[in-house]
């Protein structure tokens, strides 16, 4: 490759990278429910649509819904109590709470737009207040728009990586690495934000927020000496979250 062609490739690559970050800045908005500035590229209606479309497949991956309608209704009642007593009721999202049949996998998760899930394996170890803590945490993910933020960040880094690859292969690898690390860091921040929101929703709904700490202890014990439960593998170590939860309890109880 001659020097002129190399310069052109570098210029094009840098232009694509610059475009990716300009686009990110132009799509930054303040979350009206958390006050945090976020890079978002979709509307709340699109989030709801994605969640509703994905929910059946996610349920199928965990053996479908748990067949006891009484327990399904109980999970829904606890989740809806949290929504009605918190800022969640003011959001445009459609909240649905699902108990999954999976009795082996310790897990709970939320899809964009309000679809929240908990496996029977985790549910069966919780009392009502602890269930409220888990569901409050998942509602926090929805309100925090964490999935939408991750999707937008992923799109930005894909564009940036493509631009760097055009300019020089080695740089592309570096940019790709930065992107992955940034996404992981944001994910840890998401969990802590959701923990804090979960504590707030528990207090507002009349649940003992210290039961959230007990949830962390249950998750840690579920891992045993060798096995890591799915919930823990996709979330920060429960031990590392307990201090932040204690801080959130002190913060919101003092406000009350």
UniProtKB/TrEMBL annotation:
What does the note accompanying the cofactor annotation read?
Answer: Binds 1 zinc ion per subunit.
Q: Which residues form the Peptidase M48 domain?
A: 75-248
Q: What class of enzyme is it?
A: hydrolase
What cofactor is this protein dependent on? Zn(2+)
One Pfam family, short name please?
Answer: Peptidase_M48
Kindly state which keywords UniProt assigns to this record, in alphabetical order. Hydrolase, Metal-binding, Metalloprotease, Protease, Zinc
What Enzyme Commission number does this protein have?
A: 3.4.24.-
Q: What Gene Ontology molecular-function terms does this entry list? A: metallopeptidase activity
Q: Which residues are the signal sequence here?
A: none
Entry similarity comment: Belongs to the peptidase M48 family.
Name of the protein: M48 family metalloprotease
């Amino acid at each position: 490759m001659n020097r002129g062609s190399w310069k052109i490739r570098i210029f094009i690559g840098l232009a694509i990278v610059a475009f990716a970050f300009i686009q990110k800045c132009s799509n930054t908005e303040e979350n009206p429910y958390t006050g945090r500035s976020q890079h978002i590229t979709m509307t709340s209606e699109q989030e709801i649509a994605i969640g509703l479309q994905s929910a059946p497949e996610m349920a199928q991956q965990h053996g479908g819904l748990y067949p006891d309608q009484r327990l399904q209704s109980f999970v829904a009642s606890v989740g809806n109590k949290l929504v009605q007593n918190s800022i969640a009721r003011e959001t445009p999202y459609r909240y649905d709470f699902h108990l999954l049949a999976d009795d082996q996998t310790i897990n709970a998760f939320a899809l964009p737009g309000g679809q929240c899930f908990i496996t029977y394996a985790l549910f069966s170890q919780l009392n009502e207040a602890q269930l409220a803590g888990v569901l409050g945490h998942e509602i926090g993910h929805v309100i925090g728009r964490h999935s939408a933020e991750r999707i937008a960040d992923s799109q930005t880094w894909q564009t940036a990586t493509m631009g760097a690859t055009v300019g020089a292969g080695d740089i592309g690898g570096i940019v790709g690495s930065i992107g992955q690390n940034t996404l992981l860091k944001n994910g840890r921040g998401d969990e802590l934000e959701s923990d804090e929101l979960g504590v707030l929703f528990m207090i507002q709904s009349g649940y003992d927020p210290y039961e959230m700490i007990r949830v962390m202890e249950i998750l840690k014990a579920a891992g045993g000496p060798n096995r890591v439960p799915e919930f823990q593998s996709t979330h920060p170590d429960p031990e590392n979250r307990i201090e932040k939860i204690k801080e959130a309890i002190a913060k919101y109880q003092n406000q009350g």
